[in-house]
From TrEMBL:
This is Cytochrome P450. Gene3D superfamilies: Cytochrome P450. SUPFAM superfamilies: Cytochrome P450. Its cofactor is heme. Keywords: Heme, Iron, Metal-binding, Monooxygenase, Oxidoreductase. GO terms for molecular function: heme binding; iron ion binding; monooxygenase activity; oxidoreductase activity, acting on paired donors, with incorporation or reduction of molecular oxygen. Heme binds at C340. Belongs to the cytochrome P450 family. It comes from the Eukaryota.
């Protein structure tokens, strides 16, 4: 969907937009966060720090398999399970710069690259799983065709994305609005690869900035407690409740500004000669939007390298800049018609996970942290905090 244009892109988005607007599985996010509590509690009992990035990666991946097509890989309770290992191998293989910049190696010398062959084998197995899921979901949707079921809105929101894509396709009167099984698989693969690491990065950076700014962590916790209460028990926030967490939402937006987990937008090609500012851009020029430096541009942001959630207060700096002469300088999900289709999914996942963590724990960097002076990152296409060790203390 990212690379399609014209009518093909419109055909895909017409089916996908309603599905992604409907699927905000707060219950899934909440249940997985409670599972994550068990992993964190183990580190507390052992009086050790925990590499939170690895735990968040397992949570976000499990959220995607459940929300994508209702498949539970049990990543938090069983970190050595086969499907988690398979998917991690694929992701690592996709981001290997050697094969990204020199694809000829795979095309002509794969038989002489045993480790790379194993990654291809894992990829084939994962794609076969998706093929089977698509066929099974299509069969179920076809069998249910014509059956009218009165469903509550919250029940629809907990359906998996694949089911909703197929149902939306069935509900369209336009015979040209469809996705082949191969197109469905490609879009689900995109959703997994883009949604997994990007949300992991956003969550890890938010935890880092609240660890090194305890006053901000305290204000965010007070905001959450004001909405969810301070009882000594786990609470799964609803969609309405996450909207009330004004300060936490400001923290999330500022995190995405100062440390976007997707630092560069996908490449686009100019369809005709045009001028951007004072720069002439010839037709067919390949363009990239530098999100990271746009977010840290001193021309558009006051003290751009300072972590300051208050800039996102109603009527504050961010609102003024977004509606001012510079256009929109906050673009962690892009903007316009091609804005990331999973934006609301990611934002709601962040709100649920962070609000539940704030009620349950306080956290800080260990004394020997590599992030003592600034956050150290890793990754090319998707950036996360490198080896982010945190010390957690339970509040109940």
């Amino acid at each position: 969907m990212v690379f399609l244009e014209n009518q093909d892109w419109k055909r895909h988005r017409k089916i996908a937009n309603p599905a992604f607007q409907q699927v905000i599985p707060h219950k899934v996010f909440g249940r997985l966060t409670i599972q994550m509590f068990g992993v964190i509690d183990q580190s507390i009992e052992m009086r050790t720090s925990i590499e939170i990035g690895d735990v968040l990666k397992r949570l976000t991946l499990n959220a995607l398999t459940l929300a994508g097509f209702g498949f539970d890989i049990n990543a938090l309770n069983d970190p050595s399970n086969e499907w988690l290992r398979t998917y991690e191998n694929i992701i690592v293989g996709m981001q290997d710069p050697v094969y990204f910049f020199f694809p000829v190696l795979e095309r002509h010398f794969l038989n002489f690259l045993p480790k790379r062959k194993l990654i291809h084998r894992d990829c084939d197995r994962f794609l076969k799983l998706m093929d089977d899921m698509i066929e099974e979901k299509r069969r179920i949707v076809n069998e249910d065709e014509g059956i009218v079921v009165a469903e509550k809105k919250e029940d629809i929101s907990e359906k998996d994305i694949l089911t909703l894509l197929l149902e939306n396709e069935k509900n369209e009167n336009d015979s040209n609005t469809f996705m082949t099984n191969e197109e469905l698989k490609s879009n689900l693969c995109l959703f997994f690869s883009a949604g997994h690491d990007s949300t992991t990065g956003a969550l890890s950076f938010a935890l880092y900035h609240m660890a090194v700014n305890p006053d901000i962590q305290l204000k965010a916790r007070a905001d959450v407690v004001n909405v969810l209460g301070n009882s000594k028990s786990d609470v799964l926030p609803t969609s309405a409740q996450t909207k009330e967490m004004k300060y936490l939402n400001m923290v999330i937006k500022e995190t995405l500004r100062i440390q976007p987990s997707v630092p560069v937008a996908s490449a686009r090609k100019a369809k005709e000669d045009c001028t951007l500012g004072d720069v002439f851009i010839p037709k067919d020029t390949v363009l990239l939007i530098d999100i990271y430096n746009t977010h840290r541009n001193p021309i558009t942001w006051d003290e751009p390298h300072k972590f300051n959630p208050d800039r996102f207060r109603p009527g504050g700096e961010a609102e003024q800049k977004i509606s001012g002469e510079f256009g929109n300088p906050w673009i962690p999900f892009g903007n316009g018609a091609r804005q990331c289709i999973g934006m609301q999914f990611s934002l709601e996942e962040q709100k649920v996970v962070l609000s539940m963590l704030l009620r349950k724990y306080t956290w800080s960097l260990p004394k020997d942290s590599i992030h003592e002076d600034e956050v150290i990152t890793k990754g090319i296409f998707f950036v996360v905090a490198k080896d982010l060790q945190l010390n957690f203390k339970s509040r109940y």
